[in-house]
Amino acid sequence: MKNRKKVEVCFTPNLYDLHAEDAEIVVVIDVLRATTAMCAAFDNGVAKMIPVATLEEAFEYKKKGFIVAAERGGEIVEGFDIGNSPASYMGNKFEGDTIVITTTNGTKAIHTARNAATVVIGSFTNLDALSEWLIEQNKNVLLLGSGWKSKFCLEDTMCAGAFVENLQKSGKFRCEDDSSVAAKFMYIQAKDNYLSYLKASSHRVRLAALDLNEDIKYCLTPNTSSVIPILKGQLFS
Amino acid sequence: MKNRKKVEVCFTPNLYDLHAEDAEIVVVIDVLRATTAMCAAFDNGVAKMIPVATLEEAFEYKKKGFIVAAERGGEIVEGFDIGNSPASYMGNKFEGDTIVITTTNGTKAIHTARNAATVVIGSFTNLDALSEWLIEQNKNVLLLGSGWKSKFCLEDTMCAGAFVENLQKSGKFRCEDDSSVAAKFMYIQAKDNYLSYLKASSHRVRLAALDLNEDIKYCLTPNTSSVIPILKGQLFS
């Protein structure tokens, strides 16, 4: 099994440089809710998404007439069209459109990984579809959690652990770092009941305060989507 | 329970600034093996320990006639007296002495935390003794894992999780960050059989290759020590 590719987990963008060296594909994960929303957008016919790291850039796009999704601290930023709820895209509301998106954590993580050979969007919703695609690529995979304001977060780590488990099951991947082992352990421990496990998640508590329980359930339900959003230049399609 | 103090876990020195703000006491943890060795040293009559971050500083002390413990990559650095094995101190071998110590990860973490109001040394060996002391202090506690070359490591995180559990059981501490919750989960999952759980630990694999299984067992056995090494100026006593 000498030729197995490496799968590794990086908990937060702040640790990216320590993990990025051998990475050929970076999967950016922000379960609650940016990357789940991006998968929902493509599922609902959105043509392209342009991730931007700052509100300044988002305002520039807004001025040019783009539809802009902007979230900070779980809420839609004043003056923008939508935030980071997957529900915003349901019913093919933005079919064929290009959406600009900036969020507290997710787009920061995308920005951190932007120079990797390939950057793709992962979530529980496209877990199996993206896992299959990653196995086909036969390249080293780094799963990058977006965290919460640069700190480790439970839900992104568990989702990364779900990808680790899928990739290892294929027999084509090895997993060496303790961060990957821990992510897989956490996922296996939690897989039968994410919601209960995540009661303790600080981010879930923040979102619960915003009355987003339906959103949270959607974000934690695996395999409702089969999209593989890939970064090409400045945008995902 | 409004007046409960905060207990938080920081996985590696690289994330220290994100967690340090409210910390009043920082517990530095390097289970395999620096902080376990430091506890063993004090248990065996060592009077003082001077942690230094670099080999250059260690050489300077060596020239001045100090006994110097220097480890890199799990092995004693050539030209030094001892490495980071707790076994070096057994049988009161260095009773009354001052030992200078530099290690791959542990002393780097101590260096990172050096400006905190109080810095203490934690390990599985002084788990209950240090927990009791921390509960008595009634201050915010940050548990800092040393990691492996700045990356997350399982054994330090589990040890941090053991402290979180002890402190929370007292009823006097709250735990908010996902990193603390995850550390506690990992500890609870592993507590009945560390050695089996840590089979997957990358660091354990590294040490096993160096034939250090006796050392590892010692490092993972809780409550063989009651020392509380506290940093005063440049040295622990």
Describe this structure in words.
The structure is a homodimer of 237-residue chains. Chain A is an alpha/beta fold and 237 residues long. In chain A, strand 10 (231-232) and strand 11 (235-236) form a beta hairpin. Chain A has one domain (10-230): putative 2-phosphosulfolactate phosphatase. Helix content of chain A is 38%, strand content 19%. At the A-B interface, helix 7 of A face helix 7 of B.
Quick overview of this protein structure:
Chain A is of the alpha/beta class and 237 residues long. Chain A has helices at 16-19, 34-43, 55-63, 106-113, 127-137, 154-169, 178-190, 194-197, 202-209, 213-220; strands at residues 5-10, 25-29, 48-51, 67-72, 75-76, 98-102, 118-122, 141-145, 173-174, 231-232, 235-236. The termini of chain A are far apart.
